[in-house]
Amino acid sequence: METYLFYALALILVTFSILTVTARNPVRSAVYLVSALLAVAGFFFLLEAEFVGAVQVLVYVGGIMVLFLFVIMLVSIEALDRQPKVSRQWRTGVVLAVVLCLELSLLIFRGTVSLEEGLAEPGIITTTETMNTEAVGTVLYSTYLLPFEIASVLLLVAIVGAVVLAKKEI
Amino acid sequence: MAEWIIVYGIIPFAKIAVIVLVLSGAVAYMTLLERKVIAHIQVRLGPMRVGWHGLLQPIADGLKFILKEDIVPARADKLLFTLAPAISLVPAFVVFAVIPFGPPGMMEDLLRWVLSPFLDAAAVESIATHSAASGGFVTDINIALLFVLSISSVGILGIILGGWASNSKYPLLGALRSSAQMISYEVALGFSVIGVLLVTQSLSLVQIVENQREAEVWYIFYQPLAFILFFICGMAETNRLPFDLPEAETELVGGFHTEYSGFRFSLFFIAEYAAMVTVSAVAVTLFLGGWLRPFPNVEWLSFLDLIPPLLWFVIKVFLLLYVFIWIRGTLPRYRFDQLMGYGWKLFLPLALANVIVTAGVVLALM
Questions:
Q1: How many angstroms separate the CA atoms of B261 and B361, rounded?
Q2: Residue B101 DSSP code
Q3: Residues of B181-220 as b/e, b for ≥16 C-beta within 10 angstroms?
Q4: Confidence band of A76 (pLDDT split at 50, 70, 90)
Q5: CATH 1.20.120.1200 fits A1-83, yes or no
Q6: DSSP summary character for residue A141
Q7: Is B102 helix (H, G, I), strand (E, B) or coil?
Q8: Residue A74's CB: how many other CB atoms inside 10 A?
Q9: Beta carbons within 8 Å of A170's beta carbon, 6+ residues apart
């Protein structure tokens, strides 16, 4: 059952990801991206990481994509049509894509060993089956407090930067 | 028939069917209630012609919506234009999957009675005591509250896409206002809920109500500020007056649904009312003790237990819905800058302060 669900979700994810980059209309693109993000949330639920799954929907679909659409809606589609469809940096893009593909195939070639590298040290997460949320919270505010705070400072810097760029006089 | 088919197949589907039908009916009669209440506030009679005091008016309206011509504007994005009403409707209904209408075990006797002619006694017993089958809810998940917040945040996409896909000025402006408003108030809404979370230490809505029974007090007495903030932000999230700027008739014709007609328009309408019912139901569950009777700790009020838990839940939701309508009939609409100002400069700091104070108190008492 889980395997079938995985493949169904994978199919949805791949289809909508491809549609996201190939769609000509940016709003359509955003809608396809929403579908892809929902499929990713499905993966989290499948892995029984229901907290991360719910947050994925809340933050990405309900927050970030709404902001995206907010901006895209104001863009004139006629003006977009005149823009070149392929970015000028496509050569760099191709190089990066090839490197990423090589890395991923190496990991897949090595098999399950490569999955063990990113794992947390055993014993950090003492999770009982039911309280997924509590486990995330406990670890986030104890073991990984510093990375968490650095990430929030980064976000703050990004917000300040956006405000500085957008305002003519402060 | 195998046990798991009944527990995980038939019973959930029966519950979903009941919820969809009951919620649609409730939404239909909400419109009548609203028209009647507003009419009486304004010293009018409201709908009187269709049925006794207009009781059949919602049915007539529904038929009218189905029979009306379905217009898709020229140069509209047809796919998104069709999809948008569904996107805003579905989340409003999905949220009800986790809202507890009654205590766990509410359906036990009913299940025994229904199933006993068909199955042997042991199977009936195991189904009747199974939590997924017997509870007064579709499902009880341990992230229920997060689920409610995240799913209801998807509904706003329908409004934005509908406004954009119409390819018309007023809907686009309505959609812009709506997204700005919903993003702003979602933050304060989320923070107002955290106070309850700190007190109850659980995300499961069933558990939250159970904890209120054990604490012998509704959480509104622990978190009065959070309740008020939740209700106001809920009003803004559902685009209700005094926060109905996305569809302000006097400025934007009809807002994001200006170009919609017939049944598609009614889907948006149903979604808005269903969202109202959702906000009320969540508020009842979090702050007003869900299916519990008033003052569950006072002995001499125990005659109130004669009213079944399900009915208590419905009464409370109905009262909150009445307040929604009452406020609409009483208050004028805010200006957009006032709306944003209140959201970011008043409600959000208040909600944050509430979280900090609650956290301090909870920590001190632990």
A1: 52
A2: S
A3: bbbbbbbbbbbbbbbbbbbbebbbbbbbbbbbbebeebbb
A4: low
A5: yes
A6: T
A7: strand
A8: 10
A9: A163, A164
d(CA B198, CA B214): 16
Q: What percentage of chain A carries pLDDT values higher than 90?
A: 24
Find where tokens 């009403």 sit: B85
The answer to whether the CB of B156 falls within 8 A of the CB of A68 is no
| pLDDT single digits (tens) B175-218 | 888 888 888 888 888 888 888 888 888 888 888 888 888 877 88
Residues 128-147 of chain A with CB under 8 A from chain B are 130-133
Tokens describing residue A60: 């990405």
Closest C-alpha among B262, B72, B92 to residue B165:
B72
Please state at what angle helix B262-287 crosses helix B169-200, rounded to 10 degrees: 20
Taking residues A148-158, what's their average pLDDT?
A: 93
For the complex shown, is ipTM > 0.90?
no
A135: Cβ contacts below 8 Å, ≥ 6 apart: A125, A126, A127, A128
Between positions 122 and 181 of B, the ones with CB within 8 A of A are: 141-143, 146-147, 149-151, 153-154, 156-157, 160-161, 163-165, 172, 175-176, 179-180
Q: Where are the alpha helices (DSSP H) in B238-334?
A: 249-252, 262-287, 309-330
- pLDDT, one tens digit per residue, over B247-301 is 666 677 777 777 777 788 888 888 888 888 888 999 998 888 878 877 777 777 7
Q: What angle do CA A55, A60, A64 make, to 5 degrees?
A: 135
